[in-house]
Automatic annotation (TrEMBL), chain A:
It holds the Pfam family CbiQ. It is a multi-pass membrane protein. Belongs to the CbiQ family. It comes from the Bacteria. The chain crosses the membrane at residues 37-53, 65-82, 88-112. GO terms for cellular component: plasma membrane. Keywords: Membrane, Plasmid, Transmembrane, Transmembrane helix. This is Cobalt transport protein. InterPro entries: ABC/ECF_trnsptr_transmembrane.
Automatic annotation (TrEMBL), chain B:
This is Biotin transporter. It comes from the Bacteria. The keyword Transmembrane helix applies. Keywords: Cell membrane, Membrane, Plasmid, Transmembrane, Transmembrane helix, Transport. The lineage of its organism: Bacteria, Pseudomonadati, Pseudomonadota, Alphaproteobacteria, Rhodobacterales. GO terms for molecular function: biotin transmembrane transporter activity. It is found in: Cell membrane. Its main location: membrane. It comes from Paracoccus denitrificans (strain Pd 1222). One of its GO terms (cellular component) is plasma membrane. The chain crosses the membrane at residues 6-30, 51-70, 76-101, 113-138, 144-166. InterPro entries: BioY.
C-alpha cells in the first residue's frame, strides 16, 4: 500500500508530526476567519511557495493531488458568476483550495509511521482511562494489509467472470467478495486469539 | 472480541477496496463508485456499533495519509474538500443503517437492509454531505442539496444492491447477521 507521503525528502519530513498538525489547525482556523481577498491571495501564494521550495518534483506531485478539486472550483465559480457575486465566489474557492493544499502539505511531509505514532500519543489519555486503545494498533495494520488483498481478489473474480461471460461483471462480484472477507475475518480472529488475544498477554491479566 | 476486531478491520478494508476497484464501478452516465455501498454493507451486516467502528477506522486511515477514498484521494486534505461532509458522514451513515436493521423488525432481512441503507446511507449521509458542502462553499443548505441530488438515483441503486446482498447473505451465512438471527429466534419462541 502506497501512502501519500512524498518520496522527495524535505526538511519538514523530520519535524514532529504533532507540531505540523497543530500548525495546520491554527492556520485553517485563521484562514476561515479571514474575509479579505488580498490576505487570502497572499496566503495562497505563501502555500505555493512552500510547495515550490523542495523542488519541481514535489511541486508537481502537490499540484497533481489538488487536481481533484478542479471540478468543484469550476462549479463554484460558475454558480457564483450566475448569481452575481463573483467576489464571494473567488473568496470561497481561494480559501477552499488553500485549506486543502495546506492539509495535503502535512500529509505529504509526514510518514505513515509518524502519523500512527501521533495517534498512539493522542489516545494515551484514553488508555489511562481504561479504554483498550491497543486495539487500534492491531486494527490499523490489518486494514492496510487486507485492502490490497481484497482489491486483488476482486480483480481475480472479475477475470473469472470475463472468462465466462461477455457482460460487465459490475456489482455481482460483491457477494463472493463479502463472503470471502467474512471468512477471512473468522480466520484472523482465531489467529489473533491463538497469539494471545487482541489486547496482548500483558494487558489481559 | 478478536473476531469483532477482525470483522471491523475487514469491513474497513472492504469500504476501501470497493472505492478502488474499477470493475465494480456502476455505470449509468455519472460514474458511481461502490464506496458508499461498502458503508451501507458495513452497517447492514455488522450492525450499528461495529459498522460505525469500521467506517471510523477507514476514515482514520484516510486521515493518516492513505489514498483510500474513491478515486485514490486521501490525506488530511480530504477533510477540507467540498466532499468532506460525505466522508465524515460515513460512520454516522453506517451507524444509522445498523440502527435501522436492529430496531425495525421485518420478516425479510434483505428488505430491512435495503430500507436501512436508504435511511442511513442516503437520508442521513446526504444531510452530512450537504452540511459539509454548504460550509465549504458558503452556499445555503437547500442549494447544496440541489447540487448533490444528482447522485441520489445511483445511491438508491446501491441501497437496492445492499438489500439483495444481505438477503443472499442471510440465506448462505445466516450466523453473520447477528441482528437477523435475534429476530428469527424471537419469532421462533413466539411459535
Amino acid at each position: 500500500m502506497i501512502s501519500l507521503t512524498s518520496p522527495v525528502e524535505t526538511r519538514a519530513h523530520r519535524w514532529p508530526a504533532g507540531l505540523k498538525l497543530g500548525a495546520l489547525c491554527l492556520a485553517s482556523t485563521g484562514l476561515f476567519m479571514v474575509r479579505d481577498i488580498p490576505i487570502l491571495g497572499a496566503a495562497a501564494v505563501a502555500v505555493l511557495a512552500l510547495y515550490a521550495a523542495p523542488g519541481p518534483a514535489f511541486l508537481r506531485a502537490g499540484l497533481r493531488s489538488l487536481r481533484v478539486v478542479l471540478p468543484f472550483v469550476v462549479v463554484l465559480l460558475a454558480w457564483h458568476a450566475i448569481s452575481g457575486d463573483m467576489w464571494m465566489g473567488l473568496l470561497i474557492t481561494l480559501r477552499m483550495v488553500t485549506l486543502i493544499a495546506l492539509a495535503n502539505l502535512v500529509t505529504m511531509t509526514t510518514g505513515l509511521e509518524d502519523m500512527v505514532d501521533l495517534v498512539r500519543r493522542l489516545t494515551a489519555p484514553l488508555r489511562r482511562l481504561g479504554l483498550p486503545t491497543g486495539v487500534l494498533e492491531i486494527a490499523i495494520p490489518l486494514v492496510i494489509r487486507f485492502t490490497p488483498v481484497l482489491v486483488a481478489r476482486a480483480e481475480t473474480l472479475a477475470e473469472a467472470w470475463r472468462a465466462r461471460s461477455r457482460r460487465r461483471p459490475g456489482w455481482r462480484l460483491i457477494l463472493p467478495l463479502t463472503l470471502q472477507a467474512l471468512d477471512d475475518a473468522d480466520h484472523v480472529g482465531e489467529a489473533l486469539r491463538a497469539r494471545g488475544g487482541a489486547l496482548g498477554p500483558q494487558q489481559q491479566e | 472480541m478478536e473476531r469483532n476486531i477482525a470483522q471491523i478491520a475487514l469491513f474497513a478494508a472492504m469500504i476501501a477496496a470497493l472505492g478502488l476497484v474499477p470493475q465494480i464501478t456502476l455505470g449509468f452516465g455519472v460514474p458511481i463508485t461502490a464506496q458508499t455501498l461498502g458503508v451501507m454493507l458495513a452497517g447492514a451486516v455488522l450492525g450499528a456499533r461495529r459498522g460505525a467502528a469500521a467506517a471510523g477506522l477507514f476514515l482514520l486511515l484516510v486521515a493518516l495519509g492513505l489514498p483510500l477514498l474513491a478515486g485514490g484521494r486521501g490525506g488530511l486534505g480530504a477533510f477540507a474538500a467540498p466532499t468532506a461532509g460525505f466522508a465524515l458522514g460515513f460512520p454516522v451513515a453506517a451507524f444509522a443503517t445498523g440502527f435501522f436493521v436492529e430496531h425495525v423488525r421485518l420478516r425479510s432481512a434483505g428488505l430491512a437492509a435495503g430500507l436501512g441503507a436508504v435511511f442511513g446511507g442516503i437520508a442521513i449521509l446526504y444531510i452530512c454531505g450537504a452540511t459539509g458542502l454548504s460550509i465549504v462553499s458558503g452556499k445555503s443548505l437547500a442549494e447544496a442539496f440541489t447540487l448533490i441530488a444528482v447522485f441520489i438515483p445511483g445511491d438508491l441503486l446501491k441501497a437496492a444492491i445492499t438489500g439483495m446482498l444481505v438477503q443472499a447473505l442471510a440465506k448462505v451465512r445466516p450466523q453473520t447477521l447477528a441482528w437477523h438471527r435475534d429476530s428469527a429466534s424471537v419469532t421462533q419462541t413466539r411459535l
